[in-house]
Amino acid sequence: MEERVRRVQVQDYVQKRTTRAGFGGLSIQRTPLGTHVRITAERPGLVIGRKG
Length: 52
What we know:
Residues 10-52 form the KH type-2 domain. Keywords: RNA-binding. By secondary structure, this protein is of the alpha+beta class. The protein contains 2 helices and 2 strands, in the order H-E-E-H. 40% of the residues lie in helices and 33% in strands. It has a two-stranded antiparallel sheet.
């Protein structure tokens, strides 16, 4: 249950920060080596930024 709350909090935060980029979705996967977060956006350049 706690993990779902955290996922919703992360999704809300990312959605607020990437509104101009056309936020499309968020995928969070836990692996033995760490956590993978995949953000889907219509304009990925705005999410990544100038310096990448």
